[in-house]
Amino acid sequence: MGQHGGSSVQKHEAESGSPSTYGTAAVNALREQLLPMASIITPNLPEAAALLGCAEAQSEAQMRSQGRELSAAGAQAVLMKDGHLGGESCPDWLIAPNDEVCFPAARIATRHTDGTGCTLSAALTALRPQCTDWEEPVAKAKAWLLLAITEAERLEVGHGIGPVHHFHQWW
To answer: pTM for this structure?
Structure first.
């Protein structure tokens, strides 16, 4: 088991994690048809529970167990995102058939969490061709996302849940 340092953020409540949002047929299609073709999936805890048809994980051990189940269902790798458990730490787990790597993080108190999951997935997509496995792009993407979240206060846009600062490196 490996481990990486860093920080993360408590993500806002995901509305997409419930089967009622998409419908049972759509969740079944995701699980049965798309999951086995995926190089990696990046579910938050409600999404993982919906894909497995079970209760949402209430502990890090349950989160890892659900990641293993999703990996066994066919995904080559699963990045279980711990934005929903609460507490001071916010570890994400990369689960693959023969390896589990923890990416520990401190939870950041911020309102700038809108789009963190999609932003992380997009960063992984951009970084993966440059690397030989999933561990390196996950570490790089999470480090970049941490800065995008931390620097988001500079944006001064809107009210309520705000976006991350995707362009924090340039302005």
So the answer is: 0.83
